[in-house]
Design goal:
Layout lengths: L1 H25 L5 E2 L4 E2 L8 H5 L3 H11 L4 H14 L4 E2 L2 E4 L2 E4 L10 H21 L2 E7 L2 H4 L12 H17 L3 E4 L1 H4 L3 H4 L9 H17 L10 E5 L7 H5 L11 E5 L6 E4 L2 E3 L22 E5 L7 E6 L3 H8 L5 E5 L9 H8 L3 E7 L17
Parallel strand pairs: 6-7, 6-15, 13-14, 13-15
Antiparallel strand pairs: 1-2, 3-4, 4-5, 8-9, 10-11, 10-12, 12-14
Helix pairs in contact: 5-13, 10-12
Amino acid sequence: MKNAKHIVKTVLFCGTLVVFSAVSVFSPKEKGSFYENRRLAVFPVPSVDTVLDGTFFPNVETYISDHFACRVPLLRLNVRKELALHNPVVSNTVIAGDTLLPYHGKPRTDYNHEDMQTVLDALSQVNTVCETVGARFVYLSIPEQSSALRYKYPSYLTSGTYTDDSMRTDFLAGLDARGIDCLNMADYLCTDPEKYYSKTDHHYNFYGAYETYLRTMEHLQTLGIDAPVTTDVTIEQIERPFLGSRSRKLLGEYPTNDKLYRFTLGTPVPFAREDSGQPVESTVVNENFNNVYDYYMGGDIGETIIKTNRPGLPRVLVIGDSFTNPLEGILYTSCDEMRSLDYRHYDGENILDYIADYQPDVVLYVRDDLTCITTEGNGTMGLAE
């Protein structure tokens, strides 16, 4: 009798695993995880090499883990448990009062020097092609949220400041050694980081983006770029609760009063907009996304072109990831034409060919200070991929 019970339990347990795995493998798949803000694993293509070298089956395991049935409810249950236990770190997120920061784990002792040289070499090439076409090239260094708010970390949790500071110092020195013009926004945004940064997202808020716009225009004027500066702007909170990137990792379970900001121009500037070659609505926000950062510019897009049809003003090309989105929403008001490229999504010309063909007056490269040596996507802009 006991053996029969054990057999039944084993069959039920194994059957449950088989059913859940089958549902996980064969049910319709999502490409990305909204809450984790990342792409989910795709099913690996088997080959003799991947089977023999042992990589195929671990990749299948990763795929099943990413697409496991009831995965989000199980993650939510785990987050609730961790929060109820008042754990200081939940889902690799440090709970620092009303502020959420990334958990760095074991302190890093150094950064990847080879990657830094790869990125600096790519930027040198961009600087050279800008000089050839007569454009001004400016590197905009933006502190990431956890960099600007590092003092919020509990004393017993490392924020990796030693390595981050070393990397940042060496990188800025590398830009200077190559004659690349850099506007270091840490000099301005870190004077009042709680005004300029989100509590629950890794970006600056619109106040931070607007301050970056003002300082950028001020800097361009010193370079001889004459353009109007938009100062008649009203900024107000969006009352809907903001689900920042760090809140999303906690599946929105951590209570917060963090907000997104809506901005209104005193004097609207008419424009036409194209995204990836297709005409779209002439707007720089998406009210359908007014609880997430995709509110600005409608999220990350490979190529956006905004034309205001004012030939006396500069043509500006912006390169970067989502830190550019709220900046683009105000920057276009100072341009005849503004284009933006995000090489995580843009698969057209590499940056050198693009600049040579477009011949802008200004090229702005926007990068946060914790991803400045990342070589993928906007790190090398199609030059090393």
